[in-house]
Amino acid sequence: MPQTLPDQHTPPLGFKILTPLYDRAIVLLTREHIWRSKFVQFIDPQPSDFIVDVGSGTGSLAKALLSRQPNCAFFGIDPDKEAIARAVKKLSRHNLKADFVHGYLERDLFDEGEGATKIVSSLVLHQVPLPEKSRILMTIHHVLQDGGMCLIADYGHQKTWLSRLLFRLTVQVLDGKADTQPNADGILPDLMREAGFEDVQELSRISTPTGVISIYQAVKPTARLGGSS
């Protein structure tokens, strides 16, 4: 049975009118220079990599990855047409090659044998309903090559009263509580395991004026031939 996808998506800052301010807001409110540089370091793009960015937004991650390794293949997907248009312009200004498509990540997005070596996503999962968080992670698992890596940078477990307060006064004001609270409760590692990933790790926690952003890494296990008795 085909998946039922959301008819609407949450714009980058919660409201479409704020999209032009997204890049500047992320710099000011999330200590972007710290978490994004760590994220790029952990992704560690290689010339042989085929990297898919789920919720590629305005192309900031694409620019950072391709500036570090221009020979890797990059494919960004996002449901926001204006964000994609901004991403295309941003990459073009820096003479970097990337492919972007408007839409949602789906299981049949790539032909058989074209699976990504790494699938990444940043500041996306906290904005979507819990069933969609699960669907995205299960689809990432399906699309990845065996042995491929999933890396997520997003709001994670808000463990202290201060981080919970900051998260409540900023992220939850813009994006609402229903979709964001599971992230604040620390659900992402469990959802990654439920999707079939192994070796799920929280690599880093970065405190920001909007709460703690965590970087998670997980691996799609290599299919085992035959069985064991």
What do these coordinates show?
The protein has a 7-stranded mixed β-sheet, sandwiched between helices. The protein has a single domain (16-219), classed as Rossmann fold (3-Layer(aba) Sandwich). The chain has 9 helices and 7 strands; from the N terminus they run H-H-E-H-E-H-E-E-H-E-H-H-H-H-E-E. Helix 3 links the parallel strand 1 and strand 2. It is 38% helix and 24% strand. It has helices at 22-30, 32-43, 60-68, 81-93, 130-143, 161-169, 171-175, 177-184, 188-194; strands at residues 50-54, 73-78, 99-102, 116-122, 144-155, 198-208, 211-219. The protein is an alpha/beta fold and 229 residues long. Helix 2 packs across helix 3 (60-68) and helix 5 packs across helix 9 (188-194).
List keywords for this structure.
Rossmann fold, 229 residues, alpha/beta, seven-stranded mixed beta sheet, 7 strands, globular
What percent of the residues sit in helical stretches (DSSP H or I)? 25-40%
Number of strands: 7
Rg result: 17 Å
Q: Kindly report the CATH topology.
A: Rossmann fold
Please describe the biggest sheet, giving its number of strands, its sense, and whether it closes into a barrel: 7 strands, mixed
Portion of residues in beta strands equals 15-25%
- State mean pLDDT (0 to 100 scale): 87
Tally the helices: what do you get?
9
User: Tell me, what is the CATH class?
Assistant: Alpha Beta
Low-confidence stretches: 1-7
Instruction: Give the class from helix and strand content and strand pairing.
Output: alpha/beta
Count of discrete domains = 1
What is the level-2 CATH architecture name? 3-Layer(aba) Sandwich
Strand order of the largest sheet: 3-2-1-4-5-7-6
* Termini separation: 34 Å
Q: What string, H for helix and E for strand, traces the elements in order? A: HHEHEHEEHEHHHHEE
Give the CATH H-level superfamily. Answer: Vaccinia Virus protein VP39
* Anisotropy-based shape: globular
